[in-house]
Amino acid sequence: MIDEANVYLPKFMDDYNRRFGCVARNDHDAHRPLLDRDGLDDIFTWQEERRVTAQLTVHHKRTMYLLEPTEEAKAAAKKRVTVVEYEDGGVSIRFQGIALAARPFHKDGCVTQASIVENKLLSGALTEIRKRQQQREHELVRSAKTKREKRIVRDRFANKLPPPGP
What is the spatial distance between Cα 62 and Cα 125, in angstroms, rounded to a whole number? Predict the structure, then answer.
C-alpha cells in the first residue's frame, strides 16, 4: 500500500502544482531563523484558563489536580491559572508564568469486578460482608411493626442486593 502511494506521489505533486501553483510576487524569503528563546515546546501546546479552588485544586478534562501547598500555590488560591497540555498528554499548571507542583486525581476511577476476583482474600471478605448486609436488611424488614414501616424499609433496599442465599 505504501509502495503504491510512493509511486503515485510524484505524479500527484506534478498535477497539483500545475493546477494550483503560482509565481510569487516577491522573491524575498521572509522566514527567520528559529531562536533559542522561541520555545516551540510552549508554542505547540493547548492552553486553557481554570480557577484554583480554596482547597488548592484545579479541574481539567475530568481530572482534578491537587496542588502542593507551596507559597506560590497558596497565592494562586481562588485565582485563574493556565493549564498547559503538551502534545504527549502531559499537563502543567502555571500561575503568573511559574509552574505549580500538582498531582492528578482521576474522577472516573473505579474498581472492576475482575480486579476484585483476582484477589481471592478480598473477594472472600466482600462475599462475607455482602451476606451480613443482606441478613441485616431482611431482619429490618421482619422487625418492622406496621405495613408502612415494612414498605419504607423494602423501598430503601429495593434492587440494592439480591435476597440472602442459604
Answer: 32
